[in-house]
Predict the structure of Mitochondrial nucleoid factor 1.
Amino acid sequence: MSATRYRRFLKLCEDWPRDETKKGRDLATFLRQRVASAFREGENTQISDPEKCDQMYESLARINANVYRQRFPRVRDTSFTGITVEECRVLSSGNMQQMDEQKKGVWNMLMKRLSSKSPEDSPEKAPEK
């Protein structure tokens, strides 16, 4: 019976769309990792709670099939902030990398300013006796 569950989860992983703008951070990647860790022995994996496993599969399958999106259609394609989907692309991996580089640039600039002390700021040596 666990072989059937394993195959169903594999099929779900194949069908789940990947977001190429969020490599390594998207839900499809996370789902694949969780299935791999849950079914370490493949079809021979023993499931401790088959009902919970089936419930998880059904929930994920409904999300993947857009059941809730069809049941509760959105009036506008924006979030509560009014930001559109295109404006949310800021979270893509490329843009995140650019933001990190900018932060590093600002951080390096601050460190240089703080580390380059004027001679007046440095403590003088105490005279030797």
Notes: The chain has two domains: 1-73, 79-110.
